[in-house]
């Protein structure tokens, strides 16, 4: 089925949302709900379909062209298609790297536009933000060096004309700029305050990957980002409002992040003791799987 569905997608236009959206969803789930052997073949099939990749390029570009919906909770058919497109491309990035699959057509994206979609949001629905974050995380995990993805934009153009950028930090973090990193971190913090479960999971995962990227590129910048006082205010905000417990998956994962990067001004010995105490008093067998995994990672990091 991958052959006819992917060929059908390649013959469509981005405006054919009724046909494209379920088709892209089928391709996405075909990648995820199969055996590793079949998965490798499925990736090869999709990445060899030039017309499909050209269609995906056009779909992603519609993110900046289509007018925003009436509000962040409203998901139009166009937004649903964008979600499917971003999620499929994120998966293709992941599996192309895993299997080192040959690429017959590259995708070109302006990194500044991708970051601005998260930083400024502009009434984007939560599901679309989650999908873009999934893509951003996949690109960060590969240091923006995937053979499937070509990064274009102002920072890239500057690096071509100026072999020695004025900012050593920007050079180390390339293609990200230092200011973009700080703006992105603040925006991710703001998204966490929404306390939407799906969005929180995507935001924390993106923060984890971003910190790993920064630590490899420039440890000073990574530690500076991890020690920002705003993080502590964020933790208190997440712990307020009824569910005053450290045993929340997103809170535990954030705490793990701060312990990992030695942010003693954000998480103190007192908070660590509180988490251990809550874990000791909880019925571990009844904890949700996400909480159990997050608690395990936290204790191992401590």
UniProtKB/TrEMBL annotation:
<dbReference type="InterPro" id="IPR052133">
    <property type="entry name" value="Immune_Signaling-Apoptosis_Reg"/>
</dbReference>
<dbReference type="GO" id="GO:0007127">
    <property type="term" value="P:meiosis I"/>
</dbReference>
<protein>
    <submittedName>
        <fullName>MEI1 protein</fullName>
    </submittedName>
</protein>
């Amino acid at each position: 089925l991958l052959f006819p569905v992917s060929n059908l997608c390649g013959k469509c236009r981005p405006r054919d949302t009724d046909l494209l959206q379920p088709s892209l969803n089928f391709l996405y789930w075909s990648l995820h709900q199969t055996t590793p052997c079949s998965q490798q073949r499925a990736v090869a099939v999709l990445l060899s379909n030039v017309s499909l990749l050209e269609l995906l390029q056009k779909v992603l570009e519609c993110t900046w062209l289509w007018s925003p919906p009436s509000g962040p909770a409203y998901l139009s058919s166009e937004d649903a298609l964008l979600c499917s497109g971003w999620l499929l491309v994120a998966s293709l990035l992941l599996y192309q790297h895993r299997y080192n699959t040959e690429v017959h057509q590259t995708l070109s994206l302006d990194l500044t536009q991708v970051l601005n979609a998260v930083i400024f949001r502009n009434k984007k629905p939560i599901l679309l933000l989650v999908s873009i974050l999934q893509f951003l995380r996949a690109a960060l995990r590969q240091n923006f060096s995937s053979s499937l993805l070509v990064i274009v934009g102002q920072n890239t153009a500057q690096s071509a004309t100026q072999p020695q950028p004025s900012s050593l930090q920007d050079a180390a973090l390339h293609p990200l700029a230092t200011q973009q990193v700080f703006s992105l971190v603040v925006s991710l913090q703001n998204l966490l305050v929404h306390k939407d479960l799906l969005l929180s999971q995507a935001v924390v995962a993106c923060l984890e990957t971003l910190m790993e990227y920064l630590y490899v590129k420039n440890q000073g910048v990574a530690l500076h980002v991890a020690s920002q006082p705003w993080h502590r205010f964020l933790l208190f905000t997440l712990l307020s409002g009824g569910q005053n417990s450290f045993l929340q998956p997103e809170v535990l994962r954030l705490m793990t992040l701060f312990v990992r990067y030695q942010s003693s001004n954000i998480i103190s010995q007192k908070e660590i003791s509180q988490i251990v105490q809550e874990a000791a008093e909880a019925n571990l067998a009844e904890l949700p799987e996400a909480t159990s995994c997050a608690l395990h990672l936290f204790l191992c990091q401590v």
